[in-house]
Each structure stands twice: as structure tokens, then as C-alpha cells.
RNA sequence: GCCUCGAUGGCGGAAUUGGUAGACGCGGCGGAUUCAAAAUCCGUUUCUGGUGACAGAGUGGGAGUUCGAUUCUCCCUCGAGGCACCA
């Protein structure tokens, strides 16, 4: 064993051995329990960032732990390779997105390998290859024929200067990020997945996922947003609208129907369009509503505005004339693009009616009474007894709901209906670097899916986009084709798919990544799926995870897999954050400095009070702790950390600094601390290896001090097993191993028993750290005299007998305040404990002159004496 | 605006789920070793008062339940993630 801990050599040696033995390559072994451990695959953005390192370390710890439990562990890796950054890089550097992407993958693969992850690299793939996306296209055509995919108009951000569609991210304060032009909403035809057909199942099967964080399930439930309500039709007022028909709205509060004093429609609604034709002012207003982006956060925070259309509808029960307004807060994409407004019992309607002087009519008796004077009071929205509602007066919500439903049904003006907040998933993107949508547009036959034997529709890879729309739309050699059905000249669809589609099924492809006869090999898929442990950022809690669940059900319904949910257990990891430093420029702009270039100053207590730039010694401002990002220049390059300290130190620090689901604050000194710990482990093992090999430990003849040492060993086993295996709290597992090391370092090494005990302790340290710091554990395990590598060793077993204590220290409280400690035999009776507590000097002092009312004894823990 | 989550020493965090608040690590301070430094080791470190034994306060703020609250309930403040074309 080398005297000094030298991570570079140790890590290279361990990785070489794993490579040579194909240690992590797995196949379907029928008699062994499987464990599929999956971390969200990376987008190949250029180089690894700390968020990746954290994600893949967490996954690797779990995978290696499960392997030590004797399971057949699959841990794959691949690349989510389509996406916008490749196009942006192309525009900036005049490189084809394909080349940029493949280069990034090559570099990042090397980086990942230096982390020493227990990955089966033989299963690696990138989603931008035809071998992968052809099956996505295949599924698309199947679903299109089934009607699960359909075409309709959708609203997008339109940049009128660059003449292109922008992503929400590219719209900043309502303006295009490159052109600065005011963005407009525009309707274009798009393909949609009917995810709403699966809304009910996506909602109900969340209950079958006990291994998911409650937080994520709640977010998904709210996102799907099931509401039971009523569809109500307001007949057109023929004098104003001039035709027969009804305006359809959806409401969850049909009990307030008699309180409806106006209706509001979205700017894109057909009634709005009709009214605007003879009304230039309204026309202008509608144009104004179309200004700005489509992001819901922007729409929801903008000022509520409206304008009357001059059209009227009739109240379905009273036949009263109600004005039709256009309002910018009504979303065309939710429900029917129209709402009935009940200002007395809805906050938004109340604000709107107050602003535009519309009537407010209370129809529910709430805890605030029968009237609804301004300002708005939350109680107005409560359910209660109906008033001012004719024959419905006195009813509660439930009876009003059914009574109204009955009347509306008879009039054929309404029905009970369940509405979801979830909308169908639009997947058309007017971009180049994505999976081509396999559709041919034929004048005679319409939208024709590309037949299976003509798949894949290959994306040309030598194209450099210029930011003015998709280059595919300008490539006749791509879009000119013949109709697969009738053979006449036709046009190929030039839109590509949302990149969320690729990431919605990659976990299934890993089961049979090179299978050429289908999307997945059903045998392999059913062997490995569902994923036993999925790990990824909390930012994916809704979209990615919902789409993947949806796709899994689509694949199930295609007979590709038997399971209904893709991820049995989910761990959502927090962000990696770091301190930011900046200087103000003359124009008030901030220039940011990387923490690596900054030196901090501390006060007498060690609190950071100031910071200076290392290069010029001048002060910089401390900007607060934020998510590591390019824009704030507070990213720490994982590569430089690995080069300096080794992968094990990096992994240890990341797992120790905080539990995986919380944000992790980067700390250079914390990394040094982790390294220091590994050096201490190495030093003790080296010292121990100088002694002659110890005999077996004789557990029956341990001294009290030796018992205490052995107790520390098994406490560490207990804690680490719980923390790694069940709770995924790696930080406390490591803390317990550190505590064990503190004990072992002080342990004597004289007798054979001492050495045998130290041998047990060091082997335990090596095993417990093996999932976290696999390289040093690999070397230690060998140095401790073991033949088989540590990756094949079983996880250590807890000896409960080692934890037993004869004497316990109990806490004594008076009125809940700590007043002393007593040591008692572990099996002391309640009475003995109480008696001992009553005699305690401090207890007597604090109960002097008081009467003891009650004594609470918690066995093995404390005694609380209640006195007054 | 809506949905979800979070807040504990100088810092990251711990607390067996209602039972000793601050494990473990970082930083600070004091000391040892050293010609000196690095590295390493030992001690100390929530705050306030006190030489000290000790006492009081203390888990973002306010109220409540309880013998006992970081933990449960209600209200508030601040921060983070998501909001459907970033991935």
C-alpha cells in the first residue's frame, strides 16, 4: 500500500479494472432480482456542469448500493441530443448542429467516465440518430392512425421582424430576443397528442406511486386539474348577433348562475371576431390583446382589460339580456374560450365588474352575509345557501348543482361535465434540429402518415440554420415527395417534434437499445421496466414526468410493455448553488466574477464581510447565493475539481454537503474537508497494514472500551444502511462514518484483539463508502487483504448485539426545562428512574416551594417533573 | 397572478417523526510540531450575563394545542422551482 493517498493513480487503476472486466455490463438474468437505476440523461450542451455531477453521483450511489445487495443492476446513459442550443450555437459559430452535438457528446462522455460511474456503456445512444428517432416516427404514425394524434390550430409567439416563431424563453418582456420587435400571438396548424384522453388515468394512477414524493404528485394533480362542473349554454340574442346559436361556457359554480351579469370571451373567440368587423375600436382592442407572448405567467400578471362587443346573449334561466365582453384574461385554450361572470362570488370577475361598472348581484349567503360591498372579501367566494335565485332559494351547493342541472338539461342548455385544466400536447416545432414529423400533405388524400417501410424520415445533418424559420421549409430536396397513397406530387411536413417527445420513452429503449425490429424488444422491456429508481431535477416535476408517464401508457396500449407507470420510485434532486460576486459598471450594468477568482475577508467570528478580486486586489460586491449559471458566472467547473482532488473527493463532498432533494451550496473549503477525510482514512489503513494480519475477532471477550469501539462500527452500519438504502440521506450516512473514523483513529493497536477490531472497523469504512467513493474503497478493500473486488462484496451486516448498552444516560426536566442527567441501568424500572430523578440535587433546587403535580417518564429517554 | 416547496449557530447541515436543539463537516480562535511555512495533531467555538459554578434567551415573525413544539394548527414575511416552445 502506498503511504500517501494519490487519487489520480487509484482512480485510474480502479476504472481500468472495471473496464477490463466489463464490470457493469448487464443482461437479463432470470434468477437474479433486477434493479433499474436511471438518472435523467443529459442534454449535450458542451461540458458537464455540477448539476450533472450531482445527478449522476446520486444515481451511482444508489446503483452501487443495490449491487452490493446482490441485485442485477442496470444503470445506462445516453444523450437527449435534439434541442435549441444546437441551433443557437450553429448561428453563432456557423457549425452544423449535428457536428456541434456529436462533438459535445464525445467530450462529455470522457468527463462522465472520469467520475467512475457504474454505467453499462454498451447501451449508450443519442436521440438524434435515425436508429433512435425512427421508432418515435413509427409510433407517431400508429397513433395518428388511431386518432391519438390530430391536427388543429395553436397559438405561438410570432416575431414580425425575424419572421419566425419564438420559444417562450426567447421572448423577453414581450419582445423578440434578437430583433427586439414586439411579439404577436399567431395561430398556426400543429399536431397534438390527445393527452386529455388519458387525463383521468394520469390522475388516478398517481395513487399507485407510493415511491414518488408527495410534492411532485400534488403538483401533477393540480396541473391535470380535474374539476367537476357544468357546461352552460347562453342562447344568442338574435337582435344583436343576428343568427341562431348559443355561447358555451364551463363553470364549477353553477349554483351562482343567477348571479351571472355578463359573459366574457377570449380575443380569439368567434363572437369577438364577428363583433369587431363593424367596430374599429374593438378591432384595435383585439389587436392589442394579441400583442405579447403566449406564456401563461405573462398573461396572468398583465393588467385585466376588457371591452364590450355590443353583442348580447340571453340568460338560460331568466332570458335576461347579458352583455358579451372581450377580456384579455379569458384563455382561448382553456375550456371553451368563454366564461360566465359572477362578480359577486368570483374575485377576478369582481375586480373586472368594479373597474367597468358592471352589475354585481349576490346570490349566495356566505359568512360575510347577504351583500358583497367593496373591497373584495375572500368569504364572498364561499359556498353557502342560495338567495335571490327564485325557486332555488334556500338550497345548498349540492342541491343547487343538481337542480340547476335538471332544469338546464330540460331546456337543452346545459349538462354536468368534467373539465381538466390539462390541455392537449402540441408537439409541432418550426425548427430544424429535431425529429421530423412523418407526415406527407397531399392535395387529394390530406395528411398521410409515412408508411412503415419508408421510415425513418431522415433529418439532413449538414445544415446550418440562420434563425429565420426552419431551413427544412426552404429545402425542396427534403419536402418534395410523392403521396404514399395515390402517388401524386405531395409536400412533406417540415415541422419537427417537441424535444420532450424523445425524452418521453428513452428509459424504455435502454432495455434493448440496439433492437432493430421494433421500438423496444417486449421481452427485454418487461424484464427491466418499470425503472426502479429515477433521479433528476425537481424542475422536471411536471412536464417531463407527465409526458413520460403518458408515453408509457401509450406504449402499453400498443402492446410494447405490460406495466402502466414508468418510474416506480422518484428522487427529485435540488439545485447546485454558489455565491455570486460582481462590480457595477458605469451604466449600472453588472459584471460578474467567478468565485474561483475572488478572495473573501472575514470578521473575528469568521463571518464573510468583504471580497476582493484576486487579480487586482480591489473589492467586489457580494451578490448573494444563486443557482450556478453562465449569466452570473458562478459556476464551478467539475473538471478542475476532479483534476485537482479526484472524483472520489468531488463525489464525497456533493453527497455530504446536503441531502439530495435540497439545494447544495458549493464550498471550496468543504471540498478540501472531504479530501482531508479521505486522506485520514487512507493514513489509518496504511498504518494498520504495517501490523501483521490480525486473527479473527473474539466477540465474547471484549473489554468495555473495545465494546464501545465495536458499537461505533455497528452504529455506522445501521445508520448508513437506513440512510442510503431507504431514506436517500447520504449526508447523514457519511457523517456517521466520519464519527466512526474519529473513534477508530483513537483506538489502540496493541493487542491482537485491538488489531482485529480495527480490521473490522476499516473494512466497514471501505464497504460503507464503496457506493459513494468507489475508487478509494476499491484500493482499501484490496489493501485490507480481500481477494474479490469491493464491487462484488456484500453490504455489511448489522450485529444488533454490538449496539446493546448496559447503562443509559437519562435526561431530567422540571417543567420541560433541562435540569440534569442521571445514569441508570438500561433495565431500571419506571419507579427506580422516577425515584432517582426526584432525589436529583438540581430537581430539589428547582422544585423547592412547589408542589409536584405529575411525573412523566419516557423509558430510556427522560423524566419530566411537572410542578407549580 | 396561479400551483408546489423551503427558512435552524459565522456557514453547509443534524435531531430516532412530539422528548437533551446544534450530530458531522467547514470557518474562526488558542495551542503543539517546525528555523519558517505547508501538512498534521490537540483544545475551544449558538447568543447574552458571569473569573467561575451557573443562569437567562434561542430553530424567519406572530398566535394556539401540549407536561413538553425545530416537529402539530392558524395567520404573516421572505426565498426557491414550475406555469405547457429552455432542457
Automatic annotation (TrEMBL):
Identify the domain of life: Bacteria
Methionyl/Valyl/Leucyl/Isoleucyl-tRNA synthetase anticodon-binding domain span: 707-829
SUPFAM superfamilies, per database record? Anticodon-binding domain of a subclass of class I aminoacyl-tRNA synthetases (SSF47323), Nucleotidylyl transferase (SSF52374), ValRS/IleRS/LeuRS editing domain (SSF50677)
Q: Where is this motif: 'KMSKS' region?
A: 627-631
**What's the Enzyme Commission number for this chain?**
6.1.1.4
User: Kind of enzyme, top EC level?
Assistant: ligase
Place the motif 'HIGH' region on the sequence: 42-52
Q: Which GO terms describe its cellular component?
A: cytosol
Q: Which residues form the Methionyl/Leucyl tRNA synthetase domain?
A: 39-171
Q: Which Pfam families match?
A: Anticodon_1 (PF08264), tRNA-synt_1 (PF00133), tRNA-synt_1_2 (PF13603), tRNA-synt_1g (PF09334)
Instruction: Cite a single GO BP annotation.
Output: leucyl-tRNA aminoacylation
Q: Where does ATP bind?
A: 630
- Which ranges carry the Leucyl-tRNA synthetase editing domain? 221-406
Q: Into which family does the record put it? A: Belongs to the class-I aminoacyl-tRNA synthetase family.
Protein name, entry field: Leucine--tRNA ligase
